[in-house]
Amino acid sequence: MTMLHVSEPAHDDLHTQLVLRGLGKVYEGEAGPVEALHDISLDLRAGEFVTVLGPSGCGKSTLLKIIAGLEAATAGEILLDGHPISAPGPDRGVVFQEHRLFPWLTVERNIAANLSLRDREVRAKVDRLLALTGLTDFAMSYPKVLSGGMLQRVAIARALLRDPAVMLLDEPFGALDSFTRSQMQDVLTDVWTKNRTTMLFVTHDIEEAITLGDRIVVMSPRPGRIDRVIELGLEHPRDRRSAEFQRVRTELIERFEEIGQGDGEA
Q1: Chain centre to alpha carbon of residue 135
Q2: CA-CA distance, 101 to 143, in Å (whole number)?
Q3: 69 with 85: CB under 8 angstroms?
Q4: What pTM did the predictor assign?
Q5: Distance between the two ends of the chain, CA-based, in angstroms?
Q6: Which pLDDT belongs to residue 68?
Q7: 59 exposed, middle or buried (CB, 10 Å; 0-12, 13-18, 19+)?
Q8: In which order are the strands placed within the sheet that holds 75-80?
Q9: Sign of dihedral through CA atoms 97, 102, 104, 110?
Q10: Is the per-residue pLDDT at 69 higher than 90?
């Protein structure tokens, strides 16, 4: 087959924001050490949207947790804007599959988190994020009355509040039905287009990876490693029915079959 263009890591430090070099992760299992990640090296340019695509068990969520500072790497280093990171910080916003909102707080107070809405700057930021994510009319609502898609909009807005350098999204739409999932992909694309926050989005869904990413990092499992990085030349927003979109989809499916992991969702 004719494979998509495989990109080389970015080397222009003026445009490189997040740098992963030789990341590895080994867990101590009952039967001995288990290598979850092996020699992960990747550069993300500022304002880029990168999707990490791979089957269950390839270590993509572990990779995201290490970048977030929620787990420690066994080997390698992470640099964000030239500074090493090893712990959680406001320079990285994180969105999980579970929204993790406080049920006793309204939407606007969930977005503000531990900051006071009486502060003019906080109030202005929350109002902007409500508008950006289409939540203005739901500012005073509580999580229990919101749909799954709306809950994830709140989680995205909350993660953006402190203007993080990078957003880390761990299959945030994985629990949604296919129609809502498609809607949320469009919402996130719109948020990214307007905000231009660097995005690293983990998924096992091939169409989702194509819909969202400027580049797709294809991972293979046992241990998790980067199989290739694919540069997409498709404009946003993307027409999932277009011939080019379907060509990319077909070639990715073929690639997963080649590496013996054909269980990526199509």
Answers
A1: 21
A2: 7
A3: yes
A4: 0.90
A5: 18
A6: 96
A7: buried
A8: 32-45, 16-29, 75-80, 83-84
A9: negative
A10: yes
